[in-house]
Amino acid sequence: MERRSSGLQRLVREAAKFGAVGGAGILVNLGVFNLVRHVTDLPVVRASVIATVVAIVFNYLGFRYWTYRDRDKHGRTKELTLFLLFSAVGLVIENGLLYLATYGFGWDSPLQSNVFKFVGIGVATLFRFWSYRTWVFRTLPARETVADAEALLERAADTEQPKQRVR
């Protein structure tokens, strides 16, 4: 039972960190979206895509160096490629909903655009959480973790052995 609860605690901690980075990413996303809409004449969905790309860069840095800093760091090229692939799918989900609301239903006031941008972010976030933890920021295999811990203990033992006196 204790083992199950510690796994649940890890998942809750991970979800909280993911949520903190994601929450900051939402602020970046919405801030850039509204800034681009305010200072340019870009269509709504193009402004949203720009904002999403900026948020993706922000989120990668937060996820890699805070949320998932303890995860496997080997194969960063593969990790970044998968992150960008799943982020692109999230971008399509997020901006597809905004596109549908704007061009399908004609809901394009600033308030409506922000509401559907936010809803799109929410739906895409569910997909991103699942895909990032499953495919991008993978946990270290147990054997590798045990081997690393044993090597660390051996090095510590080697440096702490008392020196013998010669008489």
Write the layout of secondary structure elements.
Blueprint: H1 2-39, H2 44-67, H3 76-104, H4 110-136, H5 142-160
Helix pairs in contact: 1-2, 1-4, 2-3, 3-4
- Return residue spans where pLDDT drops below 50 for at least 5 consecutive residues: none
Could you spell the SSE succession in H and E letters? Answer: HHHHH
Terminal CA distance: 56 Å
Query: What's the helical proportion of residues?
Result: over 70%
**What is the C-alpha radius of gyration, as a whole number of Å?**
22 Å
Major β-sheet annotation: none
Number of strands: 0
Q: Mean of the pLDDT scores?
A: 86
Count every helix, treating DSSP H or I runs of 4 or more residues as helices. Answer: 5
CA-based shape: elongated
Helix/strand structural class: mainly alpha
Percentage of β-strand residues = under 5%
How would you describe the overall organization of this protein?
The chain is mainly α. The protein contains 5 helices and no strands. The chain starts with a helix and ends in a 7-residue tail after the last helix.
What is the compact description of this entry?
The protein is an all-alpha fold.
